[in-house]
UniProtKB/TrEMBL annotation:
It holds the Pfam family Peptidase_M1. Residues 889-972 form the PDZ domain. One of its GO terms (cellular component) is extracellular space. One of its GO terms (biological process) is peptide catabolic process. This is PDZ domain-containing protein. It comes from Thermodesulfatator indicus (strain DSM 15286 / JCM 11887 / CIR29812). GO terms for molecular function: metalloaminopeptidase activity; peptide binding; zinc ion binding.
Length: 993
């Protein structure tokens, strides 16, 4: 038993030994290349000489990088071959391949430098393989140099020179090497070795950096998972860099003393040891690490200070300032920062991507998903797809749309918030109707909206995936305002009030430089050169802000008219930007200086000051940094709102017709009794028809059972009077036929289909009085599916019911009135969709009362629910305050007197045997012809009169000089009386029939 225990002990020791020695482990089971390097560096000669051995696994392509190196000897599997050029691709082999390479190189320029001052090797400095490999590195160099490379353990063999052995058992990309006359400070923390490599001048910073390393590692271990390595070091660089590598970061000498580097940049670089240098970036599929690390480091620090929203706003300002259409590209194509535009995409939009993912999933699911991604991909290449898989696995959800929209598209969504109505309810409660809109391309978004009243604030998430989404919010107290995304939780285009005139907007766009004289130009030459590199043109002439649509930079002086926009300059150099009052999408800037030297002292700082609206400096020291002001979120006033129009920009009816001409449905909302509105409708119909649009005309005033009458009239099979009888126009509608006649006649002349849209009057009357529940099964079968979700529409109709529609008191119950309105809307919507589905080549112009289409409440939203979302709304002569949500366009036609309509001048009552004349008005055709009270009209022009609609149909076709033969019963006898002409007009005609 004792011998067995000793044998087991020996096996465990051997197993651990194999695991801890990469070379042995790789020899037994080579899964990725193994590279062994022994090299000597001679700084006085800028020289490296060495030997590299590379073992490649079977069945894999391996690419070898020899660029920048002088290859002395090259062996493959013991056979010496002629040294290859810069690159060599080894085809897959059934067995491992063994390469031996003797090489040398002289390095004097970045990314590789060997000098007596310092050694910085971050490029291809020895024979390396593309992709991940295991590396075992031994470096010999003069004693005064302290060296560092990625390592969990550093073994140093001292002698006349020092030899460093960097032990690192994990896969990595080609490792860097840095060496210099460093002072080294080292601490043990948990099981880690923490170190700082500093030159003498910055040695006093060591403890502060060690403390920050401990704090940061501790924080991210609790947030993500264990730190992946056994060491971490901060290494000073003679060049001003901020690089992250496995187990260390390389930071420039001038940067190290700056407090923000230690507090902000260092956590960013340390975090890369989890993401980027722990989980490696699959460069062929885009760089996700910078966005993620920016979010978890820089943004997280801002959040701790309570400035998370401000930080996200700055990211959006930078994106909008630097990313022009020609510089834009999808986030998944970001590889690395090459300019401010690529930084705004990869770092900024990338960080916002992860913030939105966190908002979508919630904190716990987001950080659990990150942990899973880290665990499953540590020491491997990972892509955006791997991130998606980890979060989908953790949350058991499908994130394809989210990742696709944000990674594959350029640009950002453009949103707006529009007030529809504020409707008073009971008990100091209000209904606020809002609309969130977005421009194409549409994103699937959850948009945060806050509604603030005198008594409370309500937060809502508006779900939107198309052009708009409606919100109905009930709130206590008088509503004051609503704000969309005031905390900048969405990556989106900032509106004008949110987009301040900061220096980033000056540096990120092209424009003109205006200088009053050559003498002044000489003084500003460094600044002019700086701006010209960013696309600015030195103008030979004076330019006013109202003359161009680009930025303008004024040197030394500004036009008198605009001087009050700029405060008095302070300091030796002054640069301030303001919004161009003539063109608010652009900015104008004023630069003033006392000397060229002052510009030179501050010029290198300008690019980093983009967040400010302006700066002042003295002797190169920034004395003033002007923070911009901006509106937080997209705000609409609910208490009192005023909007206006630029009258010189009013559109013609032709331009509006053209703008809507491709829409599948064009709603023309009318007041039924306004002739000028019907003439305007006709003008739009004419334009569409004459420009080849295949239109049909949908009509509210005709009911579905009477479609055949419309078809027969358009086809010319019946005349006008018969059409009015068969369609029962006057029985079911009643408005002056002559108001619509020009439209119907034009349709008949041009064979434009007319479509009866409305529900039968019998059904809507019954519903209005008794409700849908009172309908018979046969009647219910004629009623489409009804949507009752729009609370704003319901409350608007309640207001109509209580103040206007039910003044007669015939309908006692609002609920039944509301149901009748919904039956109208749903039936007309269904009629529109039915027709267009049967005639997919057609468009439809819908003539309907404004109340059915304003705000898209009635018919349009129900057409959209049935799948037709491509529509436009034009309102004619709206009488309420204009609101962007009301419609797409409004028309204000000049008032036009209604066309002549023949009237007898009598008040009648329908009786079983005819029309009883209750009153004859004075000075009317009836009075002049001798009609009397008590007469019963039984015929008109020899046609039987059964109801008032029959009489109206006959009178509808009469002209002012025409007559009508009226047959009456008077004291039991039939009498014919010729009535006319109908020229008489007086006030009593408004009541006469």
């Amino acid at each position: 038993m004792k011998n067995l225990f000793k044998k087991l002990q020996m096996l465990v020791v051997l197993f651990l030994f194999v695991l801890l020695v990469p070379g042995l482990c790789q020899a037994k089971s080579l899964l990725i290349p193994f590279v062994s390097l022994e090299a000597s560096l001679k700084p006085e000669k800028n020289l490296i000489e060495g030997k590299a051995e590379i073992k490649t696994p079977p069945g894999q392509d391996v690419s070898l990088n020899l660029s920048g190196l002088k290859v002395k000897k090259f062996y493959i599997n013991g056979k010496r071959i002629s040294p290859p050029q810069k690159y060599i691709n080894l085809s897959p082999s059934n067995s491992p391949q063994h390469l031996k390479i003797e090489f040398s190189a002289r390095f004097t320029n970045l990314p590789n430098i060997i000098s007596e001052r310092a050694i910085v090797l971050t490029g291809n400095w020895f024979p390396s393989v593309e992709g991940l490999a295991h590396y075992d590195i031994k470096i010999t160099l003069p004693k005064k140099f302290v060296a560092i490379a990625p390592s969990d353990e550093i073994k140093i063999k001292s002698g006349r020179k020092n030899t460093y052995h960097f032990v690192f058992k994990h896969p990595q990309e080609r490792p860097p090497l840095v060496a210099g006359p460093y002072f080294t400070y080292q601490e043990k923390y948990k099981k880690l070795t923490l170190a700082v490599y500093l030159f003498e001048k910055n040695a006093n910073l060591a403890q502060a950096y060690l403390n920050q390393i401990k704090k940061t590692i501790n924080e991210y271990e609790s947030l993500i998972g264990p730190y992946p390595y056994r060491r971490f070091a901060v290494v000073e660089n003679i060049f001003q860099t901020g690089y992250a590598f496995p187990t260390f970061t390389l930071i420039g000498s001038r940067l190290l003393p700056l407090p923000f580097i230690r507090e902000t940049s260092l956590p960013h670089e340390i975090l890369h040891n989890w993401f980027g240098c722990g989980v490696y970036v699959d460069w062929s599929k885009g760089n996700w690490s910078e966005g993620l690390v920016t979010y978890l480091a820089d943004h997280r620090l801002a959040e701790k200070k309570g400035e998370g929203a401000l930080y996200r706003h700055r990211l959006l300002v930078n994106y909008q300032s630097y990313v022009t259409p020609e510089r834009d590209f999808p986030l998944k194509m970001f590889i690395g920062r090459k300019d401010r535009a690529s930084q705004a995409i990869g770092y900024g939009k990338g960080a916002l991507f992860f913030h939105m993912l966190r908002q979508k999933l919630g904190d716990k699911a987001f950080f659990d998903g990150l942990k899973l991604f880290y665990q499953e991909n540590l020491f491997k290449y990972a892509s955006w797809e791997d991130i998606k898989k980890a979060f989908e696995k953790e949350t058991n959800s499908n994130l394809h749309t989210f990742f696709s929209e944000w990674l594959e598209r350029t640009g950002l969504p453009k949103l707006n918030l529009v007030k529809e109505r504020v409707i008073p309810l009971k008990n100091d409660e209000y209904l606020v109707a809002l609309r969130v809109t977005q421009e194409k391309p549409y994103y699937q978004l959850s948009v945060p909206v806050e509604v603030i009243s005198e008594k409370e604030t309500k937060s809502i998430q508006a779900k939107i995936s198309g052009p708009q989404a409606r919100l109905d919010v009930k709130i206590k107290g008088k509503p004051l305002k609503a704000v969309l995304d005031q905390n900048y939780d969405l990556a989106r285009i900032l509106t004008e009030p949110e987009f301040p005139p900061v220096l980033a907007r000056l540096f990120g766009r092209k424009g003109f430089i205006v200088v009053p004289s050559q003498i002044i130009l000489d003084r500003y030459k460094p600044l002019v050169s700086f701006l010209e590199k960013r696309g600015y043109i030195l103008s030979p002439n004076f330019i006013s802000p109202d003359e161009v649509t680009e930025n303008i930079v004024y040197l030394d002086t500004i036009p008198e008219k605009y001087k009050n926009l700029f405060p008095q300059a302070e300091g030796n150099f002054y640069l301030l930007t303001v919004e161009n009052p003539e063109n608010p999408s652009q900015i104008i800037a004023l630069a003033q200086t006392t000397s060229t030297q002052e510009i030179q002292r501050v010029l290198h700082k300008l690019e980093h000051l983009g967040r400010y609206q302006g700066i002042c400096s003295n002797n190169g020291v920034l004395t003033t940094k002007i923070e911009p002001t901006f509106e937080k979120g997209i705000k609409v006033n609910l208490d009192f709102d005023v909007k206006g129009l630029a009258l010189k920009e009013l559109n013609s009816i032709e331009s509006i017709a053209r703008a809507v001409s491709l829409k599948k449905v064009i709603f023309l909302g009318e007041r039924h009794d306004r002739y000028e509105q019907h003439l305007a409708q006709l003008e739009i119909i004419k334009w569409l028809h004459e420009h080849g649009r295949p239109i049909a005309i949908g009509l509210e005033m005709f009911q579905r059972p009477f479609q055949q009458a419309l078809d027969d009239y358009i086809a010319g099979r019946i005349g006008e009077d018969e059409f009015l009888r068969q369609s029962e126009y006057f029985k079911r509608w009643g408005y002056n036929w002559k108001l619509y006649k020009p439209i119907i006649d034009y349709a008949r002349e041009n064979k434009i289909p007319l479509v009866a849209l409305n529900a039968p009057k019998e059904i809507t009357d019954k519903v209005a009085k008794e409700g849908i529940g009172a309908l018979s099964p046969e009647e219910k079968a004629q009623v489409p599916e009804i949507d009752r979700q729009n609370l704003a529409y319901q409350e608007f109709l309640r207001f109509v019911f209580e103040h206007h529609e039910n003044s007669s008191g015939k309908i006692k119950n609002f609920e039944t009135f509301y149901e009748a309105q919904l039956v109208w809307d749903e039936t007309m919507a269904q009629s529109i969709v039915n027709y267009l589905e049967k005639h997919p080549d057609k468009q439809m112009v819908v003539l309907v009362g404004s109340g059915h289409v304003v705000y898209g409440y009635g018919i349009p939203s129900r057409v959209a629910r049935r799948g037709i979302k491509d529509y436009a709304i034009i309102l004619l002569g709206p009488e309420e305050a204009l609101n962007p949500a009301m419609a797409d366009y409004v028309l204000f036609p000049e008032p036009k007197e209604a066309p002549f309509a023949a009237k007898l001048g009598v008040l009648i009552e329908e009786k079983p045997n005819g029309l009883l004349i209750k009153k004859v008005f004075p000075d009317t055709p009836a009075k002049k012809a001798g009609l009397k009270e008590g007469d019963v009209i039984i015929k008109a022009d020899k046609q039987d009169i059964n109801d008032l609609a029959d009489l109206k149909a006959i009178l509808a076709v009469k002209k002012p000089d025409d007559h009508v033969l009226i047959t009456i019963l008077r004291k039991g006898k039939a009498i014919n009386i010729k009535v006319g002409p109908f020229k008489t007009k007086n006030k009593s005609e408004k009541l006469a029939k």
